[in-house]
Amino acid sequence: MLVRYLSQIGKYFLMLKEVFKKPTKWAVMKGLIFKEIDDLIIDSLGIVAFISFFVGGVVSIQTALNLTNPLIPKQLIGFATRQSIILEFAPTFISIIMAGKMGSFITSSIGTMRVTEQIDALEVMGVNSLNYLVFPKIIASLLYPFLIGIAMFLGILGGWIAGVYGGFVSSNEFITGLQTEFIPFHIKYAFIKTIVFALLLATIPSFHGYYMKGGALEVGKASTISFVWTSVVIILANYILTQLLLT
């Protein structure tokens, strides 16, 4: 079993090497990149905005309801919302949700091309199919931090609205909490994580879709497996990056 996992990891890195070989003509690649930006980034805006806004509100309300001691200042609600959203929720949990949304889309689209022999047709025409299919997704994923920036803003906005209009904290207290002990490096840390997660989101589902075997049923299985492994690797990368950057 260990040998199988190690061989898959090796195969994954060999795939990454092949992605950058024999590039497709820019005239063709440009259209593919814009299509992937639309499919992976623009189409994800709605779900990211919806989840971020309401989770920010829930974090604010739960923090407020647990502040039973009158000696603890209400500013802590804003502080806790900011820390939760910026450090973990926006970069990590949105990425795990995107592993289900973006990852399944990538695996199923490439897997369907494998099943219907479209990838074989690309190879016959002398096109580097990995560069043609995976490289545009990697370039599109570089805009993923834009999504996470929106998630951070809407999460904090949702927390402010839930806290202030729910009667848990005044607007001034919440904003004071947001500004308390703010460390600018936390934003950099969140975006460094985001870029790593973006590359994982683009490449791991592509790997599972490209190397799948079988028919339509196996496409569904490959999508499930890719979601599981993308989530596992994101969580492991999150731990490693936190250990390296924050300790």
Structural class: mainly alpha
Biggest β-sheet: count, sense, barrel? none
Average of the residue pLDDT scores? 89
Low-confidence stretches: none
Shape assignment:
elongated
Number of strands: 0
Percent of residues in helices comes to over 70%
Distance between the termini: 34 Å
Count, helices: 10
Our count of domains comes out at 1
Q: In angstroms, what is the radius of gyration? A: 21 Å
Following the backbone from N to C, one meets helices and strands in this order, namely HHHHHHHHHH
Q: Give the amount of beta strand, in percent.
A: under 5%
GO molecular function: phospholipid transporter activity
Protein name: Phospholipid/cholesterol/gamma-HCH transport system permease protein
Keywords: Membrane, Transmembrane, Transmembrane helix
Pfam family, one: MlaE
Question: What do you see in this structure?
Answer:
Helix 4 packs parallel to helix 9 and helix 4 runs antiparallel to helix 10. This protein has one domain. The protein is an all-alpha fold and 247 residues long. It holds the Pfam family MlaE. It comes from Flavobacterium aciduliphilum. This is Phospholipid/cholesterol/gamma-HCH transport system permease protein.
Describe what is shown at a glance:
The protein is mainly alpha-helical.
List keywords for this structure.
phospholipid transporter activity, elongated, membrane, mainly alpha, 247 residues, 10 helices
